[in-house]
Amino acid sequence: MNGGRTLFSGTDRDQWTQLKLNDLCVYITSGGTPSRRVPTYYIDGVYSWVKTQELCDTWINNTEEHITPEAIAQSSAKILPKNTVLVAMYGATVGKLGLLRQPMTCNQACCALIVDDQKADYRFIFYQLLQDRDRLRNLATGAAQQNLSGEVIRSLKFWIPPLPEQRRIAHILGTLDDKIENNRKTAKTLEAMAQAIFHSWFVDFDPVRAKMAGESPESICKRLKLTPEILDLFPDRLVDSELGEIPEGWRVGIISELADISSGKRPENRFEHQSDDAKIPLWGGNGPIGFVCGTLIDGPSILTGRVGTLGTFFRIDSPCWPSDNTLIIRPKNENGFEFLFLSLLQLDIISLNRGSTQPLLTQSDLNNQLVIKPKFDIITAFHSAAKLLYNCSNNCTNKSDKFANIRDIFLPKLISGEIRVPDAEHLLEEATR
Fold it and tell me: 102 lies in which domain range?
């Protein structure tokens, strides 16, 4: 048995061996934190320095902070080779995983597994730990903060197939993860393109400033990737306003002129995991928090936190149920949806907090926030460009979610030996058509 799952029968099962994690690694270690009293350790750092909050169950390509060779020499931090598997050992992130794309360092809250490539495939070990995350968390101890010790991690036992089989299993799961990551990257790139257009038109006023500088229409259109018809919509002068200089003919308004704002509602039922009866996402102020049986909104809307979590805005274009901890922001005109969303991202929502014991954002405060109001023909032109980009982004996100669901189905079956690699390859080909 393997965690309650039955392995292959007969000779296939005979080839699987139960081994400790320590037996499959060259060594298992942790990192360190260079002294914060020496700021130069973190200035112009050469090596990426991983913290547990950066473990997101996928590859780590870069980190927020970098440290110098001197910082490594003066601390317990150490250079870890690429393909090292990281496991979070402390606090709320216990059991979270990461894979190093290149040599990096980490702090002492990460356990680093340098897998022996003559005994195991590092990706197989990563997926084995991912599948057994609940067991990892259950082994964590501590009243105030859950902790996993290095010794506990070293002593973990798994059923391990022969190395060629590990590699085939890891290749199948890794292919799915690559598809997930590539689609997510593409989605982010497309959204960044929409934001760049918004910033150029409505923050920097690039078309207006180019006209003011006497640049030829042909040059402006080529440089800013505009059609002559869109360029003609922009004035050639800036005027003063409450929000600083804005294009002539535009004005300063408030959010309530662009949107209707209401509070979400507490659902009658809630499920942590999706079931046949619960297929609609339940949203909180920081993202999805479960599923419900009914729908509260089904048109283009924007959600943000009302109580508890403030400052994040989510575009919603599919049925969902916003909880009573959210505010629902609906555009008065659907052509203004993308402009409204990106205008909201410019606001300093944290400064509007009225809570004492927990953060609170009122409808009134959000309604009365100042915002630039261009002429609506320019907003409509932006809608045409931005909607196409967001639709393509949504398509990539949907594909990513599809591959993630397939990966989650295959992961336990492959890691336990419930299905053979040839069968998995055949099923995968059908599922990803």
Answer: 17-160
